[in-house]
Amino acid sequence: MSLPLPTTLSPSKVSSFKDCALAFRFSTIDRLPEPPSPAAAKGTLVHKALELLFWDHPQGSRSLAAALDCLGRAWSLLASDAEFTELGLSDEEAAQFRHEADQLLRRYFQLEDPDRIQVLGTELMLQAPLGDMQLRGIIDRLELDPDGRLVVTDYKTGRVPPESREQARLGGVHFYAYLCEKALGVRPARVQLLYLAEPMSISATPSDQSIKGMAVRAQAVWAAVERACQTEDFRPHPSALCGYCAYQAFCPAFGGDPALAVSQRPGSTEAQVGPAEARPDPTQAVRDALRAAGLVGV
Asked: For the sheet containing 200-204, what is the strand order?
C-alpha cells in the first residue's frame, strides 16, 4: 500500500519537503490541521491590505493614508475568518497585532513608491506542467517596470534570512519566473522579495541557467516525494524549526507515532481543480496587458 501522491508542487511544498519530509507528509498528504499562527495571520492581513491598495487606488492616489485605510478594510474583511478568530486574541493582543501590521505597511513605503507601480495582477494563481507533474504558485504581485519589462514581486512579513539562506529564498521567485514563462509566454526581467519587517529588498534576474536549475531541483524533489509515497517512508529532520512544528505528537523524534496521523485525516485528499473550460481564466486580463505592452505576440 502506498500513500496518495500530491496533485501539484508549489514553492511552499518544495521548501516544506526539503526542511522535513515527515512534516511535509503530515501537512500535504495527511492534511492534518495546524493551529492558527499569529505570524501567518499577520502576513495574510498585510497582503490583503496591499492588494486593496493596488486595485482600489489608481496610480497617483496610493498614499500611506490610503494604505492604512486599506488595512482597516482588510481587518474588517478578515475579522470573521477562522485564521483570525481561532487565534483567540484579547482586546490588548488584537491592538498589538493591528499595530504590528500597521508598522509593516509603513515600512513598505520605505522600499518603494506604490504610485510608480504599473500592476498587472495580484494574488495571481499560475499553473504549468513540468514533466509528469503540475507546478502551481500564487504570485503576490505581477507588474511592468518603467522600461515595460515584467517583474515578479513577493512580499515577506517575516525576518530576512541569513545570507546562507538567501538563494534558497529566491528559489521561490525563480519558481514563479518559470510559471510566468510557461503560462504567460514571458520570462520576467526581475524577481524580487520585499522584506517589510527590516525593510529590505532582495532581487535577482532570471536566466536560462536559473530557470533550468529550478526545474531540475523541482523534478528532484518530485521524484523524492514519489519514492517516499510509494514506500511510505517520510523521515523526520530534527532542526531549529521543530520548535514551531504542530506535529510533534506524531513525530518519532519526539516519541510520537506517525501511524496515528492517519486517524486524524479530514477524510479528503488535495482539492481537485475542475476542467479549464468550466471556470474563468484568471490570467486572461494579464495576457491581454502583456499583449498590449508588446511582450507577447497576437
From this structure: 118-130, 133-144, 150-156, 190-195, 200-204
Strand 150-156 and strand 190-195: the pairing is parallel
Cβ neighbours for 298, distance < 8 A, ≥ 6 positions apart? 291
Per residue in 90-116, is it b (16+ CB within 10 Å) or e — as a string?
A: eeeeeeebbebbbebbebbeebeebee
Among residues 81, 114, 147, which one ends one of the domains?
114
Short-list 249, 250, 261, 247, CA closest to 16: 247
Q: How many CB atoms lie within 10 A of CB 223?
A: 12
**Residue 145: partners with Cβ closer than 8 Å, 6 or more residues away:** 118, 151, 189, 190
Model-level pTM? 0.88
Give the three-class secondary structure for 126: strand
Pair (8, 141) in one structural domain:
yes
Return phi, psi of residue 137, to 5°. Answer: -155, 155
Q: Are residues 72 and 182 in the same domain?
A: no
* DSSP-assigned letter for residue 239: S
166 contacts: CB under 8 Å, gap ≥ 6: 202
- Taking the C-alpha atoms of residue 11 and residue 139, their distance in angstroms, rounded to an integer, is 11
pLDDT in tens, 1-25: 589 999 999 999 999 999 999 999 9
Using CA atoms, how far residue 58 sits from 4, 111, 119, 218, 289, in Å, is: 46, 19, 10, 38, 16
Calculate helix-pair angle for 91-111, 64-78, nearest 10 degrees.
140
State the total domains in the chain: 2
Residue 267's pLDDT is 56
